[in-house]
Amino acid sequence: MMARKRKPGLGDRHRKILQVLENFQQANGYPPTIREIGELTNIQSTSLVNYYLNQLQEEGYIAREDRLSRGIRLLKSASNRPMQQAKQNLQNAQQRVEEIFRIPLVGRIFAGEPVPVPASDFNYFDDESTAIEVARSLLPGREALDDLYALEVQGDSMIDAMVNDGDIVIMKRTNEARNGDMVAIWLEDRDETTLKYFYREGKRVRLQPANPTMQSIWIDDPRHLRVQGKVVMVIRQMERSLSHQSPLAA
Amino acid sequence: MMARKRKPGLGDRHRKILQVLENFQQANGYPPTIREIGELTNIQSTSLVNYYLNQLQEEGYIAREDRLSRGIRLLKSASNRPMQQAKQNLQNAQQRVEEIFRIPLVGRIFAGEPVPVPASDFNYFDDESTAIEVARSLLPGREALDDLYALEVQGDSMIDAMVNDGDIVIMKRTNEARNGDMVAIWLEDRDETTLKYFYREGKRVRLQPANPTMQSIWIDDPRHLRVQGKVVMVIRQMERSLSHQSPLAA
DNA sequence: CTTGACACAGAACGCATGTTCTGTTATATT
DNA sequence: AATATAACAGAACATGCGTTCTGTGTCAAG
């Protein structure tokens, strides 16, 4: 026996919560906590607020950062009331601009040389032409977005990392790696840059290629490797210059 | 004995912190924590960040809510042209509203089955949660953007195409391939889907893997292969935030 | 040199806050 | 009416995060 179905669309409480999110952010400059939302909407249980927030997230109205206090972002405004038209436009515009992120393309990466890393005070806005635009929804939420930069892969030397000539890799500037991270590593004894998954195993470090058919390598002395950044994303655009398309074509 | 006096005005670190506050809020929609500020300014101690924040508060640059996580509001901007900046952002926003494109994520692709292709009258707006957002600037300019759809790669069967488990491939709906296109092809005699570069060579067709170390295959009778779409882009996210995880994930 | 204020690091403490679990009530569907 | 599910409440738990304390080096004024 089928039973009660959930009504599609937003209920009164969904709308109320969206309203609260908008007002609170406007008034205080930071988003509310679950408990604060509860007070402002006469919902007495944190779990119930959470319940509604999950639904709003599934519907795409908000984005939440896991386990992060006040980590709620409003994606779509639900206010249907007339309001001040100008203000409304402004708000929408600011929302939209947050959904796109410009990552500076600072150089190339290939096996023969260490990874170029921009300084932390790198001015991101000085060169408009060399930027990769990525929607915020594709980027990891918890990362410090200011530490991101992009590199173009040169040559076929990183096929074991499933990365091709011409691919764009988006890196995060960091010197330390956690287990499971894919990192750019400079191997001092080989004079070589590689992209590998990083695993610390006791005193040794295991570097595992992304390609599951290829073997890991072990580094006995971690001082011989330098973590130069963490790979956050790889983008491959087909149909560009003909340069790398057909080495074998007759 | 009076000793060392504190220099008046803002030091480098004060300015750096104000900069971080502004950028972080702009990028994430909520203010940073003390620890996050520390990471972004290379200050290793929470107490030291707190130390500087108190000074900034006394100077009137920020307001803090006592004991409230992320309760920092920026009152004065450190950038010398605050109004200009906001206006600039607004203008850019309005220009860029159209520069983001939502591509529906319609299913999975793996070796064992033909590629799912949405109907041409597919309603892109009915399911908000299953969409990949891509900046226009990353997409090929001449393509008919309405014909694009996205698939999630399942399994390791396409490593010869340099495509990994979990990757997102953005496809263009088409039945014909031009030389040099990377296409999704259904091989009837093998009951298999592959992603290969397509080259017509006389009566035969050569399918070349993206991985230059692997061999091409030749199809003598082109009627045995069906072009199911053209690969426009491949996106690999290394560390997906939980809130944006693929809705197709189990 | 001595001194005292400043600039910093690290750890510990405790409240704030997100998450989860168990349970209850209400409502739509059969 | 029976039942499955949605809509709720309350509490417990784990972690995030602000706060505070102790200690160390550094630099300028006496």
Walk me through what this model shows.
The structure is a homodimer of 250-residue chains. In chain A, strand 1 (62-64) and strand 2 form a beta hairpin. The first copy, chain A, is an alpha+beta fold. Chain A is 21% helix and 28% strand. A nine-stranded mixed sheet of chain A has the order 4-3-5-6-11-7-8-9-10. In chain A, helix 2 (34-41) crosses helix 3. Residues 79-98, 121-129 and 241-250 of chain A have low confidence and may be disordered. Chain A folds into two domains: 12-97, Orthogonal Bundle (Arc Repressor Mutant, subunit A); 99-238, Ribbon (Umud Fragment, subunit A), CATH 2.10.109. Chain A has four helices and eleven strands, in the order H-H-H-E-E-H-E-E-E-E-E-E-E-E-E. At the A-B interface, strand 2, helix 4, strand 4 and strand 11 of A face helix 1, helix 2, strand 2, helix 4 and strand 4 of B. Strand 11 of chain A pairs antiparallel with strand 11 (225-237) of chain B, so a sheet runs across the interface. Chain A binds a DNA duplex (30 and 30 nucleotides) through residues 1-7, 13, 33-35, 43-48, 50-51, 66-71.
Key words describing this protein structure:
homodimer; 250 residues; alpha+beta; Arc Repressor Mutant, subunit A; Umud Fragment, subunit A; 2 domains; nine-stranded mixed β-sheet; two-stranded antiparallel ribbon; 11 strands; DNA-binding
List the helices and strands of chain A in order.
HHHEEHEEEEEEEEE
Q: Look at the helices and sheets of chain A and give the structural class.
A: alpha+beta
Number of domains of chain A: 2
CATH architecture of the largest domain in chain A: Ribbon
Portion of residues within helices of chain A: 10-25%
CATH hierarchy class name of the largest domain in chain A: Mainly Beta
Question: What would you give as the CATH superfamily of the largest domain in chain A?
Answer: Umud Fragment, subunit A
